[in-house]
Specification:
The protein is mostly helical. It is built from seven helices and two strands. Strands 1-2 form a two-stranded antiparallel ribbon.
């Protein structure tokens, strides 16, 4: 009898979701309920963290959570301002909220909620392009709105002609591609991780020389892959999405903050010159000391 080296067939059904229909529209129900669940989780944790961060201690010493949170926000703000200059204050909270939402949406895959190969209660919603495209659309519309408010409509549209007017088509194409790449980068990594889990599950029937090692091997690889893909790559993709959000906002308002800083520097320099000029004038007006008699 020939040894079974590998399973003959692995059932992987990418992109399949329980669907609902309303007014001719099709909705992926699992993506909707998991998105609501993760959103409620992030909001709940945020409210709990705010309560802990604002509560007064008896010894007036900051708690560990307060110190940790302030350190994270200060470091993020410092890095952003060091590379992009000062950006609008709402950009850092927006990027932070997106980071934690995407992080929990990715990490939820690690929970054992797959009842069978057809029923998965809490799949990662970021493995569905409907959610990633929606988040990318929110980001890019916010970026365009921010850019117009910072520079004015004419000033913002002018940057499409820079550095040379003949690059206008490429600059427009680049702007339109930004949300697509932002969405597909996140979707592709999370979706590929789900396919790998399906491939690992197919190893259960592996039995070389009649030895049923497939179950043990699949269990070990499943844990290892979830730790690497879901925990590490999930956190990395959340960080990249948040970082690109900050970069896009920084580029949209580029030049406005620099102009303000340069204006302040010019004012300081002018004030310094005026003070120096006043000192010289006072010295010129001072009466000369009489020369000593010989």
């Amino acid at each position: 009898m020939a040894a079974v080296i590998a399973p003959l067939e692995i059932a992987i059904h990418p992109g399949e979701h329980p669907e609902g229909h309303l007014f001719g529209w099709t909705f992926n129900l699992d993506t909707i309920w998991v998105t609501i669940f993760v959103g409620a989780l992030v909001v709940g944790l945020g409210l709990w963290a705010r309560k802990k961060l604002t509560e007064e201690t008896t010894d007036h010493v900051p708690t560990k959570l307060q110190i940790l949170w302030e350190t994270i926000i200060n470091e993020v703000t410092k890095q952003v301002e060091a590379n992009l200059g000062k950006v609008n204050p709402f950009v850092i909270p927006l990027a932070t909220a997106l980071f934690f939402f995407i992080l929990f949406a990715n990490w939820i895959e690690i929970l054992p909620t797959e009842l069978n190969e057809d029923v998965h209660l809490l799949p990662s919603p970021t493995a569905d392009t409907n959610l990633t495209y929606a988040m990318a659309a929110i980001v890019i519309i916010g970026v365009w709105t921010f850019g117009v408010r910072q520079k004015g409509l004419k000033g913002y549209l002018k940057h499409f002609l820079e550095p040379y007017p003949y690059l206008l088509p490429l600059n427009i194409l680049e702007e339109l591609v930004k949300p697509i790449t932002l969405a597909l980068r996140l979707f592709g990594n999370i979706f590929a991780g789900g396919i790998m889990l399906g491939l690992i599950a197919g190893l259960v029937s592996l039995a070389p020389a009649g030895i049923p090692v497939g179950g043990f091997l699949a269990g070990v690889l499943n844990v290892v892959w979830k730790l690497f893909d879901t925990m590490f790559l999930g956190a990395l993709q959340a960080f990249i999405f948040a970082l690109l959000t900050v970069l896009y906002f920084g580029m949209a308002g580029g030049g406005h903050g620099d102009h303000d800083e340069q204006h302040d520097e010019d004012q300081d320099a002018q004030q310094g010159e005026d003070k120096l000029h006043e000192k010289h004038s006072d010295a010129d007006r001072a009466p000369a000391e009489p020369e000593p008699a010989h």
